[in-house]
Specification:
Blueprint: H1 2-9, H2 22-50, H3 56-83, E1 104-105, E2 108-109, H4 110-129, H5 138-162, H6 178-196, H7 212-231, H8 239-267, H9 272-286, H10 295-320, H11 328-345, H12 358-390, H13 398-403, H14 405-410
Antiparallel strand pairs: 1-2
Helix pairs in contact: 2-3, 2-4, 2-7, 3-4, 3-5, 4-5, 4-6, 5-12, 6-11, 6-12, 7-8, 7-9, 8-9, 8-10, 9-10, 9-11, 10-11, 11-12
Length: 417
């Protein structure tokens, strides 16, 4: 079964042909560029539009900073831990030691594979920033981002993708990062939000998004970049990539519909922010299943993903009473859990091996979900305490929070956007 999962997750690695494939390489260059666009452009605008005007630039800066810091620590140490040799943690490729322009991962240059996977690491820690904005120190977040990619993201990646024979690989199906990226980031953000505490005016005044227009534009860029995120995870210009491309688009569209329909039933309004958030929820939901689900499955996964995201933000958030500023856990963590479960249920007949057991696969999915929640939750807390200690405390002072971080931290005003 694990051999089958490896061929499903990384088709290029299972090809019989040896040597560089120019078509695969060209596609992966494009896919990597797509995913790069998601963090300093797509997520930055999506999150920037959701925050308040006094913190727009700080929020955008956290996505930009995450991409810069994440990229650096990935090539320095993260890739070695994630894809190096070893059971629990990889090693042997620090600062890409031993990797040359002629080194291959499947049919593409390994350096290209490094770049592609690095964009995943960067966006994961950027997603987590959405839970802590408007009160976390910028310096603390940057230190946190560097430590988190190495201590949390890279090990979980190793267990899921880097070493299929790892003792912590449960045979989970996660084609493009449902647990590795989205649940992992959602849990991290949720934990930090709890440790930071609520914003001073949370629950006392209406906290309204700065710009629904920026939110929608950001969601559109995320949607675009997600084609590289999911279809690129085939690591080949193949039929699997084409299928992942199609189901990604379908699930995103159904995510919009699922969120807006439930929003209308509850509030009698169909908001632009709701539709944009639904698109992201649909994309999150299909991510782990994008290499194995058919169109029928994508419709259901995306539709329910949008509805689950809305219920999390509109209902469950008030029950948990954690100030998850931009709902990173509810849109990425909670929906990521749904997507992981749905992956075992909605597998297309042509992607299903003869020995496939849905019940057995569901057990594997829940084991991976549990491991991600426990490991990410505990180690994220440790990482945040360390980052806070290194930067003289993790939360800004009350005056800075009231005036806004754009002016006090960056000396700029985002209202002029």
């Amino acid at each position: 079964m694990r051999r089958y999962l490896l061929s499903l997750l990384l088709p290029a690695l299972a090809m019989a042909e040896d040597g560089l494939n120019r078509g695969d390489t060209a596609w992966m260059l494009v896919a990597t560029a797509f995913v790069m666009l998601m963090t300093p452009a797509g997520l930055a605008l999506f999150y920037g539009g959701l925050t308040r005007s006094k913190n727009v630039l700080n929020t955008i800066g956290m996505s930009l900073g995450a991409y810069a810091v994440g990229t650096f620590v990935w090539v320095l140490l993260g890739y070695s831990i994630a894809f190096g040799e070893g059971d629990l943690f990889g090693s042997g490729k620090v600062l890409l030691s031993g990797i040359t322009a002629d080194s291959l991962t499947g049919t593409i240059p390994e350096l290209l594979f490094v770049a592609f996977q690095g964009t995943f690491a960067a966006i994961a820690v950027a997603i987590a920033s959405g839970s802590m904005i408007e009160r976390v120190k910028f310096s603390t977040y940057l230190v946190f981002a560097a430590l988190w990619v190495v201590a949390v993201y890279a090990p979980i990646t190793h267990w899921a993708w880097g070493n299929m024979e790892s003792s912590l690989n449960f045979g989970e199906m996660d084609f493009a990062g449902g647990t590795v990226v989205h649940l992992n980031a959602g849990i991290a953000g949720f934990v930090v939000a709890m440790l930071l505490g609520r914003r001073k005016d949370y629950g006392k005044v209406a906290i309204k998004p700065f710009s629904p227009v920026l939110v929608t534009l950001g969601a559109a860029l995320l949607w675009f970049g997600w084609f590289g995120f999911n279809a690129g995870s085939a690591v080949a210009a193949s039929g699997t990539a084409a299928s992942a491309f199609l189901v990604t688009n379908v699930a995103a569209a159904l995510g919009v519909i699922g969120w807006v329909v439930v929003e209308w039933l509850v509030y009698k309004k169909a908001t632009l922010i709701g539709g944009a958030s639904g698109a992201v929820a649909g994309l999150v939901a299909i991510t782990p299943a994008s290499g194995s689900a058919g169109v029928e499955g994508a419709i259901i996964i995306g539709l329910i993903g949008g509805a689950v995201g809305f219920i999390g933000v509109a209902k469950l958030k008030s029950i948990f009473k954690v100030d998850d500023s931009l709902d990173a856990f509810w849109v990425h963590g909670l929906v990521g859990i749904w997507g992981s479960i749905a992956t075992a249920i909605f597998i297309a007949p042509y992607a299903m091996p003869e020995e496939y057991s849905m019940a057995s696969q569901l057990v594997s999915q829940f084991q991976a979900i549990g491991l991600t929640i426990v490991y990410s939750g505990i180690v994220t807390a440790v990482v945040f305490f360390v980052a806070s200690a290194l930067t003289g405390g993790g939360r800004v002072d009350e005056e800075t929070e009231v005036r806004g971080l754009d002016e006090t931290v960056h000396g700029e005003k985002g209202i002029n956007l």
